[in-house]
Amino acid sequence: MSQLLSPDRRPPLRPHGLRVLMDGHDLETRDRLFRLMEQSSLFCPRRRGGDRVFVAPDYNQTKEQQREVTMRRIEYLSRNGVFDGWLTERGEDTEMRKMAMNEVLGLYDHSLAIKLGVHFFLWGGAIQFFGTKRHHDKWLKDTENYIVKGCFAMTELGHGSNVRGIETMATYDSNTGEFVINTPCESAQKYWIGGAANHATHNNLLSA
């Protein structure tokens, strides 16, 4: 049976060691991103207890206001190089750094993390993994710089994001060089997340 140690025999709590255990990797990258957020009024920084700064979204805003400020936050992060290499660089270190920053953004606000996740991982990832060099040269850098703003039309009214249940059909017409989209019924209507209909300039359509 284990015994509790008396207070004077317990090992001291080491905050840095706990941080390494919890975050695991890319601590300097995470800290740089936190500092960027603390320095901008877009992230609603609040100073408490001397030099401690907390950031949290303003949840008293309307849906339209929150969507707009999310876009302004993305533009601020892009200008400060946060997304550099997210799509144009390869390798384990790049992927781990990207995941670390996405975790930081998710801690701040899921709206921000999801919008970036759809743009970089779904739209950008589709180009990255399914495209050829021609597609990479044309789309990846502009996607990384958030000039091209992508979305991913998967979710349908009748069954959410159940890919096997998708009813929309996309058929390529070789005579016109176009895809013919057929949404056969009301349940097959695409319901986009992340305000994509408001801001996206390009779309990946996932169909049966």
From TrEMBL:
InterPro entries: Acyl-CoA_Oxase/DH_mid-dom_sf (IPR046373), Acyl-CoA_oxidase (IPR012258), AcylCoA_DH/oxidase_NM_dom_sf (IPR009100). GO terms for cellular component: peroxisome. One of its GO terms (molecular function) is acyl-CoA oxidase activity. GO terms for biological process: fatty acid beta-oxidation using acyl-CoA oxidase; lipid homeostasis. This is Acyl-coenzyme A oxidase 3, peroxisomal-like.
